[in-house]
Specification:
Layout (H helix, E strand, L loop, with lengths): L2 E11 L8 E5 L4 E5 L7 H16 L7 E6 L10 H8 L3 E7 L5 E2 L9 H13 L12 E4 L8 E4 L37 H8 L5 H8 L16 H17 L1 H4 L7 H17 L27
Parallel strand pairs: 1-4
Antiparallel strand pairs: 1-2, 2-3, 3-5, 4-5, 6-7, 7-8
Helix pairs in contact: 1-5, 3-4, 5-6
InterPro entries: HipA_2 (IPR046748)
Protein name: HipA-like kinase domain-containing protein
Length: about 300
């Protein structure tokens, strides 16, 4: 079972993602990034975090420890942002915490080398679980620890956007063999060996393993669910879908990825389109995708 902790001190909200998790200290003196049941993504995002995160761990990938975090909104009483206060007030009770990795850095391709075998396993996991949110624009990967402290490693975070099928159970069976476009996967430039990953990992996706993982999800996050009467029925549906998808890997196994050169060319096209749409007085201001302009001079707009 997942460990349970109780939040004792609110540190700060994290505005880097859409879910706005909160960094808290807990009664075991650990620090955790807590994702809330009252966030816009709701409880299904927390179900995906547990199922995909714990599956990744059992397949040998690095994921911060997940815990069930008891949260009293009074802990965050001094939070100045109204939207954050409203979210935590709607999240009293059990939420999901992830071990905070102090000093971790966002993944950047130039910061670390990733073996094609490891890259292949991450891509394979994302394809298995229909995780559409690990791209070159939003990697949901961290590098930890810092270089010089110990060899930096790749850590997987934020799986709330995976398991897209569970948002429409009536059509879930039809998506078991669905292929997704992973050409822009965050690790595509590392020549992911997805064939080797499939040979090594697919046989390990057993009903028994999936039952163990889905048992970690609290009943309250699984129900109510239209078409199901009990939490065990929902768990069985998750396990059945994932087991069937693993058996159908030949139909969805990603094998095509954009090279670093292709990605750079796409970034340049995007930057050029952005610059072309600007008024003349803004054309020299750099955008988020391209390199800074040679002449970084801003002129006043015409009157």
């Amino acid at each position: 079972m997942l460990r349970e902790v109780t939040a004792t001190r609110w540190i700060e909200p994290l505005h880097t993602g859409g879910s706005v998790p909160g960094l808290v200290e807990a009664d075991d003196l650990g620090a955790y990034v807590v994702k809330f049941t009252g966030s816009a993504q709701g409880r299904k995002a927390l179900v995906a975090e547990i199922v995909v995160g714990e599956l990744a761990r059992r397949l040998g990938l690095r994921v911060p420890e997940l815990v069930l975090a008891h949260f009293d909104p009074a802990v965050a009483a001094g939070e100045p942002h109204q939207e954050v206060r409203e979210m935590v007030e709607a999240s009293a009770g059990l939420n999901l915490g992830m071990d905070h990795l102090p000093g971790a850095a966002d993944f950047r391709p130039e910061a670390i080398e990733v073996d094609p075998v490891e890259a292949g396993r991450v891509v394979w996991l994302d394809a298995l679980t229909a995780n559409v949110d690990r791209t070159v624009h939003s990697s949901n990967l961290m590098i930890w620890p810092r270089r010089g402290v110990a060899p930096p490693r790749l850590w997987l975070i934020d799986h709330g956007a995976a398991l897209v099928f569970h948002h429409r159970w009536e059509s879930a069976a039809a998506s078991v063999s669905k292929a997704y476009d992973f050409r822009d996967h965050a690790l595509g430039r590392y020549r992911p060996d997805t064939a080797a990953a499939d040979a090594a990992l697919a046989p390990r996706i057993t009903e028994e393993l999936l039952r163990e993982i889905t048992a970690l999800v609290p009943d309250a996050w699984l129900l109510p669910e239209e078409g199901f009467e009990t939490a065990e029925q929902v768990r069985a549906a998750y396990a059945g879908w994932l087991a069937a998808r693993a058996r159908a890997s030949e139909a969805w196994l990603p094998t095509s990825f954009r090279s670093a050169e292709q990605l750079a060319a796409e970034d340049e096209r995007r930057s050029a389109a952005t610059r072309a749409g600007r008024p003349a007085w803004l054309k020299e201001v750099p955008d988020l995708h391209g390199k800074p302009a040679v002449e970084h001079r801003r002129q006043a707009p015409p009157r």
